[in-house]
Structures are given as structure tokens and as C-alpha cells.
Amino acid sequence: MPYRHRLAIAAVLAIAAVLAWAAPRVAASDGRVVRGVSLVNDATGRPVLGLSPLTGGTVVDPSRLAGVSLRADLAAGARPGGVTLTLDGGAPTAAPSVPLPAAPGAHTLTARAGSGPAYSVRFTVGPAAPPAVDVLFVGNSLLGTVADASGENTPALVRHLASATGRTLHATEVIHSGYTLRRHLDDAAVRTALNGDRQYDAIVLQEYSTLVATDPSAATATLLDAYAPMFARTLKPGGRVVLFKNWALVDPSPFPTRDAAKAAIDATYAALSAALSATLDTPNLLAPIGDAFETVIADRGTAYLIAPDGKHPNQTAIYLDAVTLYGILCRESPRDLPDLYLTAPDASYLRDVAATAIGY
Fold first, then answer.
1. DSSP states of 225-284 as a string?
2. Local structure of 120: helix, strand or coil
């Protein structure tokens, strides 16, 4: 990676770690203010994850959505003033978002900030036949913990949910308890999975539970230097990297509180995602697992989701993780998924939390 890019990324991560609440106030070093386009839930303002950021050839089925707009994604710290959006070559609209076009068929949206470079994406509006989905999961016991009631870990449960709704999801798993993503590279299975012989619609990466918050530089080097060079040959056209943004542990050490630990996790993951987009043009999104956890924990306490060891997901949390990832990977709301091994009230509650977190 060019030295100037590494310096820029290091600066972003340093700011994020020290001032987690403050976004950088400068545009990207390459001058590109518009980084992409997202499909946004009008009611909540949240991107519809799985469909966002839009990639070339994305099919948006309005029958599966309600009240959505297209919004320009801006570089960290950039202001929305001066953004124009042009749909299908028409007159530019001086606004950061426009309604999703109602007319079925292919459309092109071009976004520009001031006199800066334009960003265009071509997508289709219309019914979408549910495709098979190929997913690679790389992680440790946060993904690999098995729900006692079903005997399934999170990837297996996502596959189960897909099957229950008539979908096909092929899951390749490389999961080792206690491993960092860097240590996974010592495993021949990871090297084989990422050698380009097989391509994926999504690559889900789950880092060691505390590393991103406590050692941002190590997390950056692993993602950008070790994994990112393999993405171009292993992602299908329109494919995405999904960064599994984990939860804060019950014991937040070395942070004084769980809120502080969560802020560090959020800030560093945001910087990592921005670096992947800005420096390597890698389509990616943050799976808001930790955000969904915090919503539930604020309502029902840590013991509702986190096992007695204070770290791992219990089977209720595994269901929450699975329905959240299902919505992202299968690109549809998880609200109507089956309850499986949970009571109907608990399962419905968790699905609503997940759906809100991912923009449905």
C-alpha cells in the first residue's frame, strides 16, 4: 500500500481512538468527496444494509421495501452542501438524496459534490428472483459458538433461516476459537478459500473480540495489508466485504465502562470501513451486531444475550446475530423469519431489533 495512504489511514485511526465522538473534518486525500450511493430507509435514515452501498447491477425490488431513497455517501467529515444527484441523465437535483425511481428497469444515478469527481452507479428497479448466495465466514468463537437448542453456530443458523424461506445460501466456514484474523492466515483453509478458485457474494470477517478496540494499528494492518489484496479475486461482481462489528464484553477492561469500549469499537470499525472504501475501493459494510446488542441490553440486560463467561453469545444472541446477518446477506427484511428454538415473543422482538439496525 502506498506510504501516503498508510499515513492517512493511521491518522484517521488515531483520531477515532482518541476522540471517538468526533468525525474528521477533512475531505479524502484523493479529492473524492462522494464515495458511493446508499439506499436509505426514509423513516429511520439508516442505510438498507445488503443493498447498500449500491454496486453496479444491484436489483432493488420495491415490493420488499417501504419508503426508501437514494443518498450520496460522502467522505468522512465532508458536508452535504453542494451535492447534486442526476438520475438517468435528467436535470441535476441539488440535494444529498432523491426518491427511488418508481419506473421499473435500469437506471443510472450520478452524484457529484461541487466541482469534484462524479460517482455513477447503474441499478435495476423491479422484481428480483432470489438468487443463491455464496458466503465465506472467517472468525472465531463469536461466530462459532453453538446454540444448545439447535446444535448450530451462527453461519449454520443463517443457512437454516435461508432454507426455511426457500432461499439457498452456501456457507464456507473457517472458524477457530481464540484466533485473530491474522492468525487465521496461518491456516491453509483460509488461504485456499481466498486463492480465487471460488468467488463469493459476501466475505464476513470477524476479528478477535477486543483487538479492534485495543490495537487499531494491528487490526488495520491485518485487514488492509493481509486480507484486502485478496478481495479483488475472491469477490463476485457486486460482492461485498462484511465486517462483523462485535459487542463490548461484560468486563470492558482496559476501558472504564462498556460504553467506552463500545465507542472505541465503533470508531475503529468506521475508520476501517472508510479506509477499505477510500484506499482500495472495496465495497464493504459494517454488520451492526454490536449496535443490535446494545439496543437489547439497554432493555433486558447483558445476561439476556451474553453467556456467563461475559464474552460469548448465548443461544438468544446467536439467533439475533443470525437474523441480522440473514437480512444483510439475503437482502431482505428479517422481520418475518421463523422463530426456530425461541418463544414467539422473544424471536419477534429480536427480529424487530435486527431489522431496525439494518435499515428495514
1. IIIHHHHHHHEEEEEEEEEE--PPPSS-TTSSSHHHHHHHHHHHHHHHHHHHHHHH---E
2. strand
- For residue 87, the surrounding DSSP H or E stretch is strand 83-87
**Rounded-to-integer distance, Cα 318 and Cα 207, Å:** 17
* Angstrom distance (rounded) from CA 16 to CA 329: 28
Please name the helix (run of DSSP H) or strand (run of DSSP E) that holds residue 119, with its range, or none.
strand 119-125
CB atoms within 10 A of CB 192: 12
Phi-psi region of 33 (alpha: psi -120 to 50; beta: other; left: phi over 0): alpha
Neighbouring C-beta atoms of residue 113, cutoff 10 Å: 24
pLDDT-derived band at 30 (thresholds 50, 70, 90) equals low
When computed from its CA atoms, the radius of gyration of the chain, rounded to whole angstroms, is 20
Looking at every residue in the chain, the average pLDDT score rounds to 90
The sign of the CA dihedral 254, 257, 258, 259 is negative
pTM over 0.90: no
Residue partners of 346: CB distance under 8 A and separation at least 6: 316, 339
CA distance linking residue 102 with residue 190, whole number of Å: 43
Contact 16, 216 (CB under 8 A): yes
184 three-class SS: helix
Strands 105-113 and 83-87: antiparallel
Closest CA to 166 of 354, 344, 352, 330: 330
* Residue 277, pLDDT score: 87
Is the confidence at residue 333, as pLDDT, over 60? yes
CA 230/CA 280 separation, integer angstroms: 11
Phi, psi of 44 (to 5 degrees): -110, -15
- Beta carbons of 166 and 198 less than 8 angstroms apart: no
> DSSP character for 313?
B
